[in-house]
Specification:
This protein is of the alpha+beta class. The chain has helices at residues 16-33, 60-72, 74-86, and strands spanning 3-11, 36-41, 50-57, 89-98. The protein has a single domain (3-97), classed as Alpha-Beta Plaits, CATH 3.30.70.100. A hairpin with an 8-residue loop joins strand 2 and strand 3 (50-57).
């Protein structure tokens, strides 16, 4: 059973470009570390503070292994440090959902 991780970000609306840079880096690192990236979504119309990251992973055990690979990945470490340094993410929530129907 595949599960989908939805990450909801509250971002600083004046640092959207930093979030987009962050997203592009995950676009390379997430697939390399084992996640099936659907995409990152930045505000366009409506809310200027809500963004999303969405990817599939086999199960929660695979998620734990993926997170360890991501933390050990050079680009992953750099991206985490970039987010911490620039402080464009104000809040981050993640939820794992399963597909019930197609």
């Amino acid at each position: 059973m595949m599960i989908t991780c939805f990450i909801r970000y509250q971002i600083d609306p004046f640092k959207r470009a930093a979030f987009e840079r962050y997203s592009k880096a995950w676009g390379e690192a997430i697939p390399r570390c084992g996640g099936d990236l659907i995409g990152y979504f930045a505000p366009h119309e409506g809310s200027v503070t809500t963004a999303y990251g969405v990817y599939n992973i086999e199960n929660l055990a695979a998620y734990e292994a993926y997170r360890a690979r991501l933390a050990a990945d050079e680009q992953g470490r750099e991206n985490y440090a970039f987010a911490e340094r620039e402080r464009f993410i104000l809040k981050e929530d993640r939820i794992f959902l399963k597909l019930c129907s197609t």
